[in-house]
Amino acid sequence: MKITGIEIGEYRQFKNIKFDFTYPEGHPKEGQSLEKVCFIGQSGTGKTTLLNIIWDFFQVFIDGYQRVALENIPVNNEPYSTFEGIKVDAIYVEKKISLNYTTLKDYVESGYANLGYHWFKDLAIYEILKNQENTKKFCLYIKESIAHEADAFLFEQKNHPQTISDFVKTDTQIEKEKVLQNDRMNAVGSKKAISLGDMQSVSVWQYLLKDIDEYDEATVNQITNIIQNTAKSKVPEELQKWVESDPRIKLAEECLNPILHNFFLEVNDSEKGKVPITLRTRQGVKIDSSYLSTGTRQLLATVIPLYKFNTTDSVVLFDEPERSLFPDIQRKLVNYYTSLAPKAQFFFATHSPIIASAFEPCERFILYFNENGEVKCRNGVAPIGDDPNDILSEDFGLTELMLDEGLEAYQKYRQLGMQIRNETDEQKKNQLIAERLELGNRYNF
Fold first, then answer.
1. In this structure, are 262 and 340 located in the same domain?
2. Which of 123, 134, 151, 250 has the largest CB neighbor count within 10 A?
């Protein structure tokens, strides 16, 4: 699935605005869906609103898919109401899809009877979707508060009694809880759209790191079995094979360590047991998870889902990826995220000129208020990879980048230049030159 456009008649801060998410005429990929999109704009211009509109599109799409499959699902009218003044265009397996009030009005006007059923069935792609991989995701929404969810895999979640009744459990109760947990994880695996960052995702993290939990639970029995049933000379070799089969190693090498390297950290794959993921310094010193920075937690919580989920033809919505991250990390982020999900379409909302510089001008959508307070949009100007200061001036529209103190210093720098040109006394002239040179070196004028 790829989103190719959004038209908004009137919705919240938007009025009569259109977004074309295809590469423009003359581009090598002319007419194709944009591979990545960057929404830029001051607070209140609707960057997150646009992400939510796309998310609601997938809620309606998936609702229709489930209804055609005759699954018994609860009715939720809210996503449908979004499209009373909005049209979203998409493409899936070369078939164009449009969702707006016109396509839904019969169901809206009838009190949402058979919500989405006929619209989806008319798309004639149900059979294609039914036969696709069960774990394939249509949409992954990574919200700005996702760093808090890192607790789900950085700290021990099991065997912590919450109430008196939790202290003593029968074998039957334990087995029943395992069945319920497996049911929740299987539901996550088959879910078509996942939202992360709303603090309701414990089962998502259990699903994503299920292989690590299963490995840890099996380790004691496996080691015992190797020691008891393997020829003595072969024991070290078999134990080494088991150690090397730890799923943490692949996760570390292919996903986490390449970005953690910038923090001089790496996954502590020698630590087994109660906590799915622990970190250590590159010198081998274990790091207490409670001391990890918000930025580190943000990275861990965002890259794992992109790496673990099947995101082929998915749409990834990403709100403020730069949160709590130093500029040197921001420079790498977009390329790193897209490398983890190379067949997905990304939509980023950002305030960072460094993040924005990783996009082509046609991939940047700059939201701004006009003189009437209405939100308008234009594409970027600065080329991909340009100096973030150029992005700030040309795309973010900041005519002045310095604060008042810097502007005053620059004005004085210019005045000194005029005084030097007009000064006839060599001693005074040299003093002015020295003063101007000192000011220029301090501010890099």
1. no
2. 123
